[in-house]
Structures
1.
Amino acid sequence: AQSVAQPEDQVNVAEGNPLTVKCTYSVSGNPYLFWYVQYPNRGLQFLLKYITGDNLVKGSYGFEAEFNKSQTSFHLKKPSALVSDSALYFCAVRDGRNGANNLFFGTGTRLTVIP
Amino acid sequence: GAGVSQTPSNKVTEKGKYVELRCDPISGHTALYWYRQSLGQGPEFLIYFQGTGAADDSGLPNDRFFAVRPEGSVSTLKIQRTERGDSAVYLCASSFPAGGTDTQYFGPGTRLTVL
């Protein structure tokens, strides 16, 4: 079975401060991990993904994420938050063992960057 | 380069009616996915097409839901005898498949409201 947990419904951070949005996962095989962002009344926008290789993945808009196999985590980070980063963030996983096609999503974390 | 488009953006219907939701994927993407996102939740997988055929329909909740993709491009999600519990945002995504490592690109969604 595959699952994703985003333990924080809401994260608040001051503009200019570093931000972290947490994600842990569970899969039987090798995980393929994704982060998406959702702005109001818009679809999901792809930020970054981890497939294999370097544990630190860099993505769009200055975001990065670190894959930690021992802790089964894939936390999203940004060194300096912008007010425009305020949105809903989703972590998702695919099980690489059997070439599963669909993504399993977490319940989302609402990020608010305070000016 | 156009992204994934979905029509209509909003659909209001009455309980028991039939609805069709349309998805136009990114040109050249052979894989197409439908997801459903209920309020406060992450997207949940419904069905996956590879070309014209439904390769995985394990996420369809019951036989009132059906989807087609007759020419391997545009897809239509069909819901019969709608119920109030069907109210949600229906998201479509497309990709060029790569054994599970591919990125799915999402459309803006159709918000379905069943009165």
2.
Amino acid sequence: GESVGLHLPTLSVQEGDNSIINCAYSNSASDYFIWYKQESGKGPQFIIDIRSNMDKRQGQRVTVLLNKTVKHLSLQIAATQPGDSAVYFCAEMDSSYKLIFGSGTRLLVRP
Amino acid sequence: NAGVTQTPKFQVLKTGQSMTLQCAQDMNHNSMYWYRQDPGMGLRLIYYSASEGTTDKGEVPNGYNVSRLNKREFSLRLESAAPSQTSVYFCASSPREGYQPQHFGDGTRLSIL
């Protein structure tokens, strides 16, 4: 997976638009998935999680979708705000209970 | 609410020096974790403690040791620092081992010259 760094995939959206951040995970046996937000100089901050027996879960302005068939996870952010600008990571967990972090995506919100 | 507190926030060491990174959580969590984050790579697990009195190796344990001092505190020690250990180190905790989110501190930025 990719961490905070110079060559992260970047998604640029207009303030007020919806954002969709995608993640491909590696282990078909993973049972639990988490999205984290990381702002510059800070630690990862929990956003939302989902178990493998669900395909959708909603929070406040965020929705996570899980497609186990193609091992794909997405995070949708409604009405994106400047404060949403950060690096977003997905993470997966299997029965060993170890979190494996995926590629990070940088979200830039244009005013 | 402090959550997970890490000290120090920044540190510069010379090759061969030793250092202990401190982590404390005030959420009464049973499980604690140490990760490193390098540019171009995801967070990688160094060591974890599923509960007080237990510690286990993660993905990248070489060159590190840990101590679970009590339920609140989990320290990471570099006995003989190497430039390859230059990284940002994050401590995390969760209520218990299992399908639960881990909550992270703000990291220690460590440079080894």
3.
Amino acid sequence: IAGITQAPTSQILAAGRRMTLRCTQDMRHNAMYWYRQDLGLGLRLIHYSNTAGTTGKGEVPDGYSVSRANTDDFPLTLASAVPSQTSVYFCASSDLGKDTQYFGPGTRLTVL
Amino acid sequence: DQQVKQNSPSLSVQEGRISILNCDYTNSMFDYFLWYKKYPAEGPTFLISISSIKDKNEDGRFTVFLNKSAKHLSLHIVPSQPGDSAVYFCAAPTYAGGTSYGKLTFGQGTILTVHP
């Protein structure tokens, strides 16, 4: 069982370009989340999805969009990347009624 | 507004000694807390949790203490081992609209280094 996979592992991107970070889980969890980790700020929630077909905004949603077409996949899209979006991005999932979230290995994104 | 705060960016301890990592919170509605551990180039992994109906939860070398009146929790690691060197995050879930899914609010993290 892989748990949560993320792709790519790392990416260097020119400002203004579009980028989609991929996230797939095989645990059949209903809820999925996207966080960014920045030094001194911990992990901050970008967007979340409680179940397939629904999404919601987290603490720092501006400049990002998500979709949840099925249970397993939860891609995060940066429509026009800016340098302030340089960060490490983590996808996570949790089961119904459970607070414990399981995290993927992360994607390190650098926007130049 | 940082609702969950870890005011010590780093902590260095000797192998075999106790490590104490601290976390403060401001939201009195928080009633459940989690600690996550993160190694470099890996995602955070769940370590231990505590409900507000308890003041202590123990799992092997790891114990979490909760002081609700002070809005403070701490993670004790005894004895500390070099493999415990990692970043530790405390987190608390919040719920909106009656959903069963808690959105986690994380502290800034504390880098623990355990020296052999």
4.
Amino acid sequence: LAKTTQPISMDSYEGQEVNITCSHNNIATNDYITWYQQFPSQGPRFIIQGYKTKVTNEVASLFIPADRKSSTLSLPRVSLSDTAVYYCLVGDRGGYNKLIFGAGTRLAVHP
Amino acid sequence: DTGVSQDPRHKITKRGQNVTFRCDPISEHNRLYWYRQTLGQGPEFLTYFQNEAQLEKSRLLSDRFSAERPKGSFSTLEIQRTEQGDSAMYLCASSSPGQGDPYIETQYFGPGTRLLVL
């Protein structure tokens, strides 16, 4: 599975848009990208996933360029409750996935 | 609530005791995973079930650990002769490859069981 690299931490303010970029240079043809959010003492919460181009749901957007070597999670107008750790993972289409988590990005949203 | 549930949410035990955790996956999911998460780290894969078959075990899963999924529904994770190093959050996730795009899997996690070994 492709290894992912993302910033260790980020800071933002309420109402701003936050973009977290994840690098996955060795992503394979069959791999897709998934993002999770985790609050302290809770299980990871699925945010969004995609294979290519752009995916949008009610909470976030995921931008994947044509070469798929990186992806960007975009959180519009963050609030204090978006303070959490965000994980970017790469999974194999068609197979089962033992997700390999890195350290994630600790996002702190300030008033 | 139709999400993944885990029981208990917290467990405090003394070193050397046995503990058992339970995971109830989303009902139509045939895939079930166990992960372990220590403070400040991301979750680490422990084992995977497809229906009742345990198809993969991480080397993190020593012989003191055993997991079962009888009848392909709920799963249990037992730790025998607990050690202080077993203190962690134990997470369960379930999925079904048939949801949405059939070639992309989405794992849904439970709230976890936090174990403290004294």
